[in-house]
UniProtKB/TrEMBL annotation, chains A, B:
DNA-binding region positions on the chain: 40-59
PROSITE patterns, per database record: HTH_TETR_2
Record-linked Pfam families: TetR_C_11
Protein name stated in the entry: AcrR family transcriptional regulator
Amino acid sequence: MTERPPHGSARPGGRTARTRAAVLAAAYEELDRDSFAELTLDRLARRSGVHVSTIRRRWRTVEGVVVDLLAERSSTLPTPDTGDFHRDLRELTQAIADFNNALRNRNVMQGLLAAAAHDTRVEEIVRNAFVRRTEEVTLIVRNAVERGDVPEETDAWEVIASLGAPLYYRVLILRGSIDDRLVHTTVEATYLAARSGVFARKG
Amino acid sequence: MTERPPHGSARPGGRTARTRAAVLAAAYEELDRDSFAELTLDRLARRSGVHVSTIRRRWRTVEGVVVDLLAERSSTLPTPDTGDFHRDLRELTQAIADFNNALRNRNVMQGLLAAAAHDTRVEEIVRNAFVRRTEEVTLIVRNAVERGDVPEETDAWEVIASLGAPLYYRVLILRGSIDDRLVHTTVEATYLAARSGVFARKG
């Protein structure tokens, strides 16, 4: 017989790690049913089976839990590398759309943005999450530069930010979902601008 | 002698209107010094001279006060009409940049977005404010269509949203200011896409 660890303790780190996993899973489930506004430490305690005082001691607030949840969930989107700039942009945009159209992911993002207004520590975490994620996928633009698809002086960061901006504007500010039409116009506008050298840094 | 009303009662509605004016002015001043996170009913009471229980009765929360402040301040940006599509886009973008680069306006916007995550009533107000403002300035695109600068089937709303998205992404999500470079790339990318028919609705 293989030595299978009992259910729930598969993550390394023992009891502390199990508590974290249980509370983050509970938060993720709660955010699939209700918005961030409805999330309370008591609801997390009820769903996770972890005592509310333990949750409060470790994360302090629901914002703290959701920040931790983002840290766990981020970097799950792969960077497309199809050999074609337009197709890379399209796949990336579709992946961002799919991620954000899942209700709970949207609730995590909206919740974090709310928390950022009340807590400069969270503000920093949110900004860093966007900046880091943007930097990761600049590979798409660097590949396109190498193939000669966009001008050499292209600012790769600006191209990716230009792609992400209409999507996050829709989700986080207009609070709607990302439909096929928005995917289309976002890809075409960014592709055209990048090809035409709008994001090229002169001199 | 003309009958001049005593200082502070110039707004119609008497005492209630004076109270509102004093509290909104206090909120606007507070947001010029500190972020939304620092705003409390007690600070508003201290600065406005209005009793905290009066503020609480009328607006319930600081979010309520800031929603009211947005209602008062919105629609202050005029819609450019220079006879040139590119110049109209540039003037509008610069106006949005100037407005949002003023610390207190940025704090109002960030505060409202935070409030929206906790209160669906505020969420609706924020969404409506963006939608209404976007609709107002679609005049720029309709003028461009009339002059033949962009294709006839152009979706004017999408063009303006494409212009606003990178600016609000910077201010509200990355939480930075709108610099000259962002104004430049945003105007050029949107201009190019609109001229090329990216926002045209076929059929």
